[in-house]
Amino acid sequence: MEKLDSYLNETTQNYIESIPESRLKKAVAYALGGTGKRLRPKLMLSLIESHGMDSKPFLKAALALELVHTYSLVHDDLPAMDDDHLRRGQPTTHIQFDEATAILVGDALLSDAFRLIGETSALDAKAQIQMVQILSEKIGSRGMVYGQILDIASEGQAVTSDDLMKINLHKTSHLLEASILFGAITSQRSPLHAYESLARNLGLLYQIQDDLLEVEGNEATTGKSFSDERRGKPTFITLLGLEKTKALNAAYEKAIQESLVTLHLKGTPSAQLMTTILYRTH
Ligand code: GRG
Prior knowledge:
282 residues, mainly alpha, two-stranded antiparallel ribbon, 15 helices, 2 strands, globular
């Protein structure tokens, strides 16, 4: 994973250098900094490496996933959305800069993501178009943005655990699905739906873990503020109780382990990364 971190640092730096000198450039660099884990590009790159390929030629497409993820966090933290002040162990972008700059940072990151896919010259045109279609589908009006509006609409409403699952599927799983699909397309794997289903379960587990960490962790270890709890938003724990939430977590963990066996990923970099997610403490 250290190799992937070093690759990603360099690619991120080159991307930042491609932006004209401006407040926007400084704020983009700031938003991409901090303690971000860069899970989404690592999911793609580690899957490529798991299939015995060098992931370096595909770094730009991997960075596109991190740009989209960072855009979603910067916009989600805005006062009109979750109104958060701490992200990745540092003040949120609109606190450090201002709201207009934070909106533009998100706009730039989202737009530039598609440029980076087009600039990944190791991918043929067919693969690039497939990735553009998948990413757009997974994050747009039927994906992550839909999840965000469902989340906002659910505030103050009676929400069931199924509603919460639907929100999480759209807000969290879909971008993880795109990340794994990017890796599967690059390494020419099929059937794609098997990889998609693995990522879907990983995203749902990730969100259940967030709820568990919110009870068991604190702001110092997670580096983000616990706005859900403060805003009285429902979580799996408030809806199902701690024991059932832990059981749900264990069921997703089992499904993920089974997929890793079916896809012959056990013992590969991809499985190692997923294990760090399964047993994360922040
Ligand atoms: C604003 C269009 C729009 C969408 C926002 C992603 C999202 C939708 C909101 C962010 C808040 C949230 C709880 C999202 C769920 C996904 C999630 C667990 C994000 C945190 O991802 P990590 O842990 O963060 O990978 P780092 O900082 O490590 O990259």
